Amino acid sequence: MARTKEFDPEAALQSALELFWQRGYEATSMADLVDYLGIGRASIYATFGSKHELYLKAMDRYAETRDPSLLTELSQPGPALPAVRAVVRRFAEEAASPEKRLAGCLVTNTAAELAPHDPAAARRVELSWDHVETPLCSALIRAQAQGELPEDRDPRALARMLFVLMQGLRVVGKASDDPARVRDAAEQALALLD
Fold first, then answer.
1. What distance in Å separates the CA atoms of residue 63 and residue 3, rounded to the nearest whole number?
2. pLDDT tens by residue, 173-192
């Protein structure tokens, strides 16, 4: 007769996500996971697979739960540029926030740590980035159609520039204790929309 799990797999996955987010993939050992999750190594392997598989599942969970409002925020009826500005400023504020800045973004952290040599992680990073860049581009196309953005601007290129800035804000915010650095960069980028 099969034994029932004595732990909640969803709670364990959330805990693994938190630990990976805090420490990174390489700096998190299987022993760290056993201690932090409070479950045995065999249970981790039986439920989630290898450490790498657990990390990928944690990335998937992160993608499901992070910023679900972004698409809604950028697709509201009416003027589009105020929403774009609000999103960029929110990223800057999060990057400058003492409570949030040290963790950074799991996707951005993964891009730097694993994506160059881990195709599965790289695919998840690209997918996550597309979920930010695509709504930005759509909002900028709408802004141009509504006369908010000059006709000579390329909405796709602007969306990519803002997206890259937003990822950079997360990296710089994580490493710098000068909040003006990220806020000033965001405001200068937003000035290009005028």
1. 31
2. 888 889 999 999 999 999 98
Other CB atoms within a 10 A radius of the CB of residue 31 amount to 9
C-beta separation of 56 from 120 below 8 A: yes
pLDDT single digits (tens) 56-75: 999 999 988 876 678 889 99
Distances (CA, A) of 67 to 98, 164, 166: 19, 17, 13
Sketch out the chain's domains with CATH numbers.
9-63 (1.10.10.60), 67-193 (1.10.357.10)
**3-state class of 77 per DSSP?**
coil
Cα 51 to chain centroid distance, Å, stands at 21
C-alpha span between 70 and 2 (Å, rounded) = 43
